[in-house]
Amino acid sequence: MATFLYKLGRLAFRRRHFVALIWVALLTLAGVGAASAPTAGSSSFSIPGTEAQKAFDLLDQRFPGMNADGATARVVFKAPAGEKMADAANKAVVERTVKELDTGSEVTSVTDPFKSRSVSKDGTIAYAQVRYEVSGMELKDASKHALEDAAEGARDSGLTVEIGGDALQAVPHTGSTEIIGIAVAAVVLVITFGSLVSAGLPLLTALVGVGIGVASITALASALDLGTTTSTLAMMIGLAVGIDYALFIVSRYRAELAEGRDREEAAGRATGTAGSAVVFAGLTVVIALVGLAVVNIPMLTKMGVAAAGTVAVAVLIALTMVPALLGYAGAKVRPTGHKARWMGGGRAAAKAPSGGAAAVEKPNMGTRWARFVVRRPVMVLLVAVVGLGAAAIPASSLELGLPDDGSQPTSTTQRRAYDLLSEGFGPGSNGPLMVVVDAKSAGDPKAAVKQVSDEVKDMKGVVTVTPATYNKAGDTAMITVVTDSKPSSVATEDVVHEIRGAGPAIQADSDANVLVTGATAMNIDVSQKLDDALVPYLVLVVGLAFLLLIVVFRSVLVPLKAALGFLLSVMAALGAVVAVFQWGWLADVVGVEETGPIMSMMPIFMVGVVFGLAMDYEVFLVTRMREAYVHGERPGQAVVTGFRHGARVVTAAAVIMMAVFAGFIGSSESMVKMIGFGLAVAVLFDAFVVRMAIVPAVLALLGDKAWWLPKWLDRALPNVDVEGEGLRTHGDAADGTERDGELVRV
Q1: Cα→Cα distances 61→45, 371, 373, 435, 437, Å
Q2: I need a surface site. Which of 307, 327, 359, 667 has the fewest CB within 10 A?
Q3: Closest Cα to residue 101, out of 139, 149, 161, 67?
Q4: Which of 86-90, 189-193, 208-212, 573-577 has the lowest mean pLDDT?
Q5: Please, how many CA atoms are within 13 Å of residue 33, restricted to the half-sphere of its CB?
Q6: Residues above pLDDT 90, as percent of the chain
Q7: DSSP state, 119?
């Protein structure tokens, strides 16, 4: 592989005009496609195999035109102080608003609070429920404006009016912190390379890659039913890996220049060595993201595949566009150790003796740290493991759920509507359960439905059970159940399980099938499905990546150590997420206005993404160590050599990735905020504790055994030559080495 990538790098360097033209054309094509594509709606949230989904499907069959999964809006009214909603003037305003809402072209039904008994006991709060024939993100702007205008008209009459539900669902925005993250990445690159041009290359190529990826997702969003969160995730991961992959190749290119290679040869060797590591690092990320398909949640699968596509584009750009841009940059990209004049360039060269700077090279911080770890591996290992273990303790109290309007900022009308409903009708009114009774096989459908209603009324935690609504055939009924706890609470989950637990006995008595659905029940089913899929997903992803790393490192213990270190870092990161988003530690700093259960998909999502990113650092850092080891250095010295060449770049890559992820903490979407925080913390733990402390300590303790591989396995595995062993003599003539355009005889 190294030889092939070496040739590819040289070709891209020589044919840079052609390569640049191809990528610009692809970016333009994707941009035109995105601009001309129809506006995408929200991704359909179907969860195959769950009871909640089966109930929705049954409702679509038995209640044609009901659009059970269509958007809903709850228009909540509150009377002025000292007045009641039933007062003539207030009642007239509500009735006028209901009539106005019912004229919408996409509206299927509107309930009158006074007819549906949706008025609080104290008479001060009421709500009208509006149902639409399409989902929230598919609603036309005209329908949303009509909803807002109707509410505003009621406000003008003196009522407090807020709108809950998903009808006003908006595309999440990330805020200015995303730009700050990119700015931090730029500063780190400038400090690392000491040159604006060298620093600009990774940023430029990453932005091109993300532009192609996100524009392609936008262009295909309507056809493939991709949600808005998909492009946000692709942008988040694409920026991080795109900058990092280009960073590693540019850094290796500068190191090759420092060894006296000419620029084309340096570009080829950088692509052949660092590029090989980029390919395998990218493969681990792609495996982790595509592996999300095992969860069998279509939305999550699409998010993973789309993000994996963006990572694949980042790899291709790093292997082709980066060498091409290095050709354009020419002498503006300096060898390692050379900085621009404005950063003190020239001092190192002036101090170096004529015999060569390498002879008196001062140990850098990475070298000093590696020597310290090699001397005291047990102490470093214990401190690192105990520290991560302590950070992971909060994860033991992890509670899973999906965000609702109660987790929205208090500045939003959705959150204010949620609070008003809780005040007037109890917290359970924000997420009522829908019990569907399929009595088609029952001898007496109405008796079966009554039996269900009576049993549910007597259950602990149930406040209200509405009269049943039958379909035209009279063989299927819907019953709305309101609990005394908020939708995302454990108590509400217990009620759902109790209703479902009573289903088999009811079916045995009356041949009626009982199903529980609604947004709250769907969230519970999603959480359970994700929990059940976590272990199979871990086995699949870690297993495939383990096999891949055996091929890369030609070792059994090194990949095993990498996987175990990843588990430590991801558990510590989950602990941090629980401490902030569930316990409320530092919530004000992060901008968390409402603590609660952790998003259901967070653990499995973090496992996937963090594993892929963790293997990036493992591959980049340890391949340098293996390269030194196979070239004859002792195990301890190989660790030091790997840190001398790789620690600074891996540190810069980690800081950049943390900055990019942290930039998404400013998002208005709670899911994006939580993912950004979790990934940033995970990178912090994995890069600076696991890879920088645990990895060298374990390798120092194992010595030669770290690189042990059974002979039969060694013969069976393909030789991918990530270390670039095949390049040691590939670019050098038998009688000399070409440097800076001239042949130097030896």
Answers
A1: 18, 70, 66, 16, 13
A2: 359
A3: 149
A4: 189-193
A5: 19
A6: 31
A7: B
Q: Where are the alpha helices (DSSP H) in 330-364?
A: 347-351
At residue 78, what are phi and psi to the nearest 5 degrees?
-130, 130
- Report d(CA 332, CA 586) in Å as an integer: 44
Task: Report pLDDT digits (tens) over 97-156.
Answer: 999 998 888 888 899 999 888 899 999 999 999 988 876 667 788 888 899 999 999 999
pLDDT by residue (tens digit) across 607-649? 877 877 777 788 888 888 887 888 788 989 999 998 888 888 8
Residue 433 near residue 516 (C-beta atoms within 8 A): yes
Cβ pair 94, 85 in contact under 8 A? yes
Q: Which amino acid is located at 3 in the chain?
A: T
pLDDT at position 610: 80
Q: Give me the residue label for tokens 């990538």.
A: 5
Mean pLDDT value across residues 682-691: 91
Name every residue whose Cβ is closer than 8 Å to that of residue 153 and which is 6 or more positions away in sequence.
96, 97, 100
CB 162 within 8 A of CB 76: yes
Nearest to 649 by CA among 246, 248, 336: 248
For residues 728 and 77, which has the higher predicted lDDT (pLDDT)?
A: 77
598: enclosing H helix or E strand: strand 598-599
CB 206 within 8 A of CB 186: no
List Cβ neighbours of 17 (8 Å cut-off, separation of 6 or more): none
How far apart are alpha carbons 298 and 292 in whole angstroms?
10
Element (H or E) spanning 107, and its range? strand 107-110
Owner of token pair 């941009």: 31
For residue 374, what are its two tokens?
Answer: 């090699």
DSSP string spanning 23-73?
HHHHHHHHHHHHHHSPPP-PPP---TT-HHHHHHHHHHHHSTT--TTS-EE
- Residues in a beta bridge with 75: 128, 163
Distant-in-sequence, close-in-space partners of 442: CB < 8 Å, separation ≥ 6: 448, 475, 510, 511, 512
Neighbours of 321 (CB within 10 A): 23
Question: Which residue has tokens 């509107």?
Answer: 110
Place of tokens 């995408």: 40
Closest to 526 measured CA to CA, from 590, 592, 602, 595: 602
State the alpha helices, DSSP H only, in 334-376. 347-351, 365-375
DSSP string, 434-462: EEEEE-TT-SSHHHHHHHHHHHHHTSTTE
Whole-angstrom distance, CA of residue 129 vs CA of residue 668: 25
> Which amino acid makes up residue 260?
G
Which residues contact residue 514 at a Cβ distance below 8 angstroms, ignoring those fewer than 6 apart? 435, 436, 437, 438, 452, 499, 500, 502, 503, 506, 507
CA distance 673 to 590: 9
Give the max Cα distance, the chain. Answer: 103
How large is the C-alpha radius of gyration of the chain?
A: 30
Dihedral angle sign, alpha carbons of residues 490, 495, 498, 503: negative
